[in-house]
Amino acid sequence: MTDTTAAISIDPERLAEIDALATSTDRTRDEIVREAIDEYLYTSAWQMERIEAGLAAVREGRVVPAEEVYARLAARYGWSD
Q: Does 6 fall in a domain?
């Protein structure tokens, strides 16, 4: 894959944190930023998949009332009101 250059605005303090991390891990600023973006995109996609699955479960009626969930947790962990 061919990389494309993208410009972003970032505050000096955050840039200093990125540079410090790059230095301490013997990586480049680009590597740190790319990894951060990759992780963010992966996490966001995972969250969206889970949200969509949850909404589908609700639409299909596959839900447990909150009171039942609380009661199960209380029973499991010995909590009382």
A: no
Q: Which domain holds residue 52?
A: 12-77
Say how far apart CA 32 and CA 20 lie, in whole Å.
10
Is residue 54 a part of any domain in this protein? yes
Chain segment 1-18, per-residue pLDDT in tens: 788 999 999 999 999 999
Contact 29, 19 (CB under 8 A): yes
Please give the model's pTM, rounded to 2 decimal places: 0.74
Number of compact structural domains in the chain: 1
Spatial CA neighbour of 29 closest among 38, 20, 41, 40: 20
pLDDT digits (tens, 9 = 90+) for 46-67: 999 999 999 999 999 999 999 9
DSSP designation for 8 = -
